[in-house]
Structures are given as structure tokens and as C-alpha cells.
Amino acid sequence: MRSHRFYTPWLLMLPALVWLALFSVWPAINTVTLSFTNVHQLTGGHFIGFKNYWLLWHDPHMRDAILNTVIFMVICVPMLTFLPLLLALLVQRNIPGIGFFRTAFYFPVIASAVTVALIWKWLLDDRGLINSLAQSMGFVHKTIPFLTDRWLLLLSAVALTVWKGLGYYMVLYMSALGSVRRELHEAAAVDGAGTVRRFWSVTVPGVRGTMILVSVLISVNAMRVFGELYILGGRTGGVGGQDVSIVMLVQQAASGSDGRLGYASAISVFLFFLTAVPLLFLTRLNKNTLEES
Q: Which residues in the chain land under pLDDT 70?
């Protein structure tokens, strides 16, 4: 058989490498370069050093965005780490009608994020379904400001994020549960362990790697949240502009004919290093897990 020439693999990889260079490597380098300039949307700029990062550090909207990100992570990480696992354990059971629930749990995943957010906005509006039902049943005497109060708007966006992510992470856990041997559950049951005890002693250790992965994915998505807050609170981030995310700040800084591309690039670089933290944490945990095993 005639052997391939040394450059054959590189020829096969060339289209992917060109695509990667044009749409990933070069934009990343250009973003870092622009972050040290004061370039605008329609005008040029010049080198200004770390001034954009100094403005970023003293921007009150950035403080609000970081606080909102922390709240997203504190709530979403534990809920989307354990609730999908419980759902995966439920849908694996052979009980009547479980096929309907499997479809219902996964339906928000395949639905458009914008469509889902618009439905939630209609439900939570002052004249929406939830307020109308609550007032007609006498639970409240005035409308609940889901979309105008800072904290209620933020919690509404968090609830939307949790609801939409349940089905996706449930599927990940269903795959992981297939590697947990049934013999371990049977042995634990023979030793007198109940359902809760077997969950913490057998199931959780068996899907530990997936739980770490899910936690990191949720953390990264919480830092990059955009659609939920943008649809529910508007492009300004709710009343007073306090319900903003870091990605929304990038969009606000770069949009318009006088968009500050340099400042938007500085925020993007900051977001990159911020999202790198959970990824490095995952690498460290995986390394420790391999060493223990």
C-alpha cells in the first residue's frame, strides 16, 4: 500500500484551520488590541493604554452586572446541579405516562430562548396571566412588579434560566446514571440503606464527574447570561438599568453610531478571564479525581 505524503493530514485540516484562524483566533487578537484603544463605531482611535480597564473598574453598571452574575451563580449552580439529577432518576423509572413527562421536561430545551422569554414576559407582566389570576383569586390586591422591581426581575430571570436548563442537564445525568452499576444499589439495600442513603452513598459518587462538569457549565452560562435579562427587562436592564449582565454591557457599549468599541472590547476581555476561572477549576478537580482513582 502506498503511504501518504507528510503534508496530507495538513491538507485535510487546512479548511478547519483557516476557519478557526479567521473566525476565532483573529477576532480574539483584534479584541485584545482594540481594548487598549479609544476607537468608536464610525471613527478611528489611538492607543490609550489601560484607560478602558480603569473606566471598567469604576463603572457602577459593571458592579451591578457582577453582583447579578454572582446571584445567578449562587442560585443556579446548586439548583441546576441537583434538580436535573432528581429528574433523571424519576424519568428512568418505568411508570405509566412517564414518556409524556420526559417530553415535557425536555421541551424548553428545544424551544427558542427568545420565544420562551417572551412567553414568560407575557405571564409576568402587570396585566399578565399570573397577576390576573392572583388578583382574581384574592391573593394580592395590587399587581406584583415582576418586571419593574430590580430583585423580582432578577429572580424572574433566574427562574427562567433554571426552568429552561432542567431538561438539558437531565439528559447529561441520564447518560451518567447508565454507568452506575445496579449491583451497588442492591448491595446497599441488602445492608439496610434506604432510598436517601443510597442516593448520597451510591448515586452521587457515581455521577461525581458529571456533577462537576454541569456545575462549571452552569457557572459559565451564568456569567454569559443575556437573553433572559434582555427580554424581561429590556435593552437598558430594567428600571434604572440595574438588572444588566456583563454581555449586556458589551452590547450597550458597542451599539449605536457612536459605539465605544474599545471599551466594549475591554469588557469582553474581562469576561474571558472571568469565565476562565471555572474552567481552570474543572481542570484541577478532574486532575485530583484521576489521581485518587
A: 1-4, 286, 288-293
